Amino acid sequence: MEPLQIAEKIKEKFPGEVVEITQFREQVSITVKRDNILNICRYIHDDADICMDYLSDLCGVDYPGRRPRFEVVYNLYSLKHCHRVRLKALVPEDDSSIDSVVSVWAGTNWHEREACDMYGIIFKGHPDLRRILMPEDWEGFPLRKDYPLKGPEAEYRGYEEVKELHRHDKEWNI
Fold it and tell me: Helix 37-46 to helix 3-13 angle, to the nearest 10 degrees?
């Protein structure tokens, strides 16, 4: 099945959920509303003709001047049929949450944690939504476009402990 056919099948199965279908250099992107994302993902995973059994990447995107401001992008691939699509879910700034799809693709776990950590997008139903890249006490979301590039000089609280852990690096050729 061709990617555009997959997009049309999703549009047919979920009327009113597909906002836009675009194609650029043979890559198909399907933009959907966020409210039904779990059902859409489960459908394209379980449908025998589509069988998107591999989530190669999930990321957040910030468009500060646009409404809705955020997107969650799912890059999907079918190992069985060798086709791929990009699914984009629109997430508004005033309620930056979306359903987790960890129940569909277990490997989504860390990707969703990273998007939450970097953009502040909350994945409802996620089994362990805690920071993955930044310290637990970090304030703000570093990949948001309005995040300050430079702030007051401050040293990370755990800096001395990290220095101690790495004091033998030169001796050990690490």
Answer: 130
